[in-house]
Amino acid sequence: MELDQLELNTSIEESEKTKPYYTALVGWSVQAIEAAARMNRPFIVVGPAEFKSYAEKHEIPFVGWDFNKLNEGSDQLYKQLRDMGAELAVPLYEECVEWAGALNARFREDPKVFNRSLLLRDKGMMKRKAQISGIKVGVFEEARDKDDVERFLKRVNEALLKLEGDHYDPIHVKPLDKAGSVGHLTVYTKEDINQIQETDFPLLMESHLDGQEFSCEAFIHKGKVRFLNITEYVRLGYSNFVPASPSLEEKRPLIEKAVQQLVDAFEIEYGVIHPEYFITQDGTLHFGEVAARVPGGHIFELIERAYGFSAYEAQILCSDPGTTEEELKEFFPDPYDYQNYAGCLMVHPSIDYVEDLKIPEELEDHPYFEKHDMFTPPQGKVAERVGFGNHYGTIFFYGRESEEMRDLLETYETYNFYI
């Protein structure tokens, strides 16, 4: 089916249109599609071509696109969406952020929108912008090869007054534009540097930051944070819960100020951002990095369970310049208005080949246990984990006490569900 054959929804009277007629969901997310449908908001999905048959089967307006390919015909995407009635683009995953930025720059006739999206895709650029804006960051540089990494490791430890034979403090390396933790590596020695893949260059190198790491999910409209969630990491990439425990939540005023400072510095006007910070016992905050799309770790699902609103709907609302103050006030709850904690454990086998899945009765009988979606790999062979993705299922918890939630996540983090 060709794009010009799609039957667009014309049942909405012109007088009732208070938002862009079509929202372009850039990427692929069933949850985002369902959210747009619940909101009765006409939408188009711009996704990888392999989802075309699914979209046609379910009568989802769809444009197939290769987000990794940039050429002279890339402007055609904007023209297709414009002709279909789209006026807003919402990015759903990392590789779509600059595409949504380019589209919104055209829709809003503001080229700076695209430049801001590039800032949110390049870890080196975002660190420099944060530093220029007076935001605390660690020592960092960019590397083009392994020799650069070795020199940086040595310089950092010289600055820490390490002597010959002392154990080096680690540095962290991460590709400049890859999502989440893909390609991240902690480097303690020269030998560790050999583990870096050549395809990960250029990359960002940074000094180790002490303190508790956590993330925020900030929903922004007209440059103001309208709702801020704080996610507590139990173990990065494996387990987290929402909202944060009282010891971290009591720092909310400090964290809210830091996130608004980041929004102001990066000139973010609309949408959702997912910054990560480190906080020390004395309340010192260091900025780690920030993304501008749906976070990993099932955080949007946890927000909905804890607070009762769809974070996917919130992202769409906050991405739209036409959303009114009344709509925002009606949609978002008070950040202190929650009854229980929602947590999850992402499970990946610790062995190379599995034969069965074992769920202990005491886990399923625990009052905090809600559900799991773990499965046995059909071929038995366990796929290598890339970053913190492609886990083999998730266990979801919901309960009253944050310490009990933390204990549960820590206990089952080391349990061998796959045998």
How far apart the termini lie comes to: 46 Å
> Average pLDDT, to the nearest integer?
90
CATH class membership of the largest domain: Alpha Beta
Strand content: 15-25%
Assembly status = single chain
Structural class based on helices, strands and sheet pairing: alpha+beta
Give start-end ranges of low-pLDDT stretches: 1-20
Gyration radius, to the nearest Å? 22 Å
Helix content: 25-40%
Widest sheet: strand order? 13-12-9-10-11-14-16-15
Tell me the CATH topology of the largest domain: D-amino Acid Aminotransferase, Chain A, domain 1
* Strand tally: 16
- The domain count comes to 3
Q: Describe the largest sheet.
A: 8 strands, antiparallel
Based on the structure given, which CATH architecture of the largest domain is correct? 2-Layer Sandwich
Shape by Cα distribution = globular
What would you give as the CATH superfamily of the largest domain? ATP-grasp fold, B domain
Number of alpha- plus pi-helical segments: 15
